[in-house]
Structure formats: C-alpha cells, structure tokens
Amino acid sequence: FQYLKRFDRGYDLDTFWYEAHSVEGSPAECLQLFLLHCGILDPSWAELRNFTWFLNIQLRDCETSVFCNPEFVQDTLKGF
C-alpha cells in the first residue's frame, strides 16, 4: 500500500523503503488502491490476495537487491 500510494502521487520510488509496522491511510483507501491497480475489473477476494501477495514478494526482493539500491547503481538505472 505504501508503494502504491506514493506511485499514485508521482513520488520517486527509487529512494523509498517500506516502513515495517507503520500504518498509513485507512482500510478503505488501501482497498481502493488495490482495486485500482490489480488489473481486473471485478476481482474476487482471492484475486486481490494473490495480487497483494505477488506485489509484496516483488517489492521485498527489489528492496534487498543490490541492483535496485540507488547508492550502488547511482543514476545508471533511474526509474527502472
């Protein structure tokens, strides 16, 4: 949710890191963003769960990858 919220607002996500145990927004705002970005017009709860699970895994892997670390790659992969 933290990434999607910032993405919608046009923030630079290259320097953002997930803040564990922090609470942002409301459950309704979270659900609205998931519905907007999941890519299915009328998703089931299972499809939303799979979308959030997959997104979470991808973002966690991105945060731990040295190739996505802005201090390592500097400006060579801006926006990647």
UniProtKB/TrEMBL annotation:
Keyword check for Ligase: yes
GO MF annotation list: ATP hydrolysis activity; ligase activity; ubiquitin-protein transferase activity
Keywords noted in UniProt: Ligase
GO terms (BP aspect): negative regulation of non-canonical Wnt signaling pathway; sprouting angiogenesis; ubiquitin-dependent protein catabolic process
UniProt keyword Ligase present: yes
One annotated Gene Ontology cellular component of this protein: nucleolus
PANTHER family in the cross-refs: E3 UBIQUITIN-PROTEIN LIGASE RNF213 (PTHR22605:SF16), RZ-TYPE DOMAIN-CONTAINING PROTEIN (PTHR22605)
Entry protein name: RN213 ligase
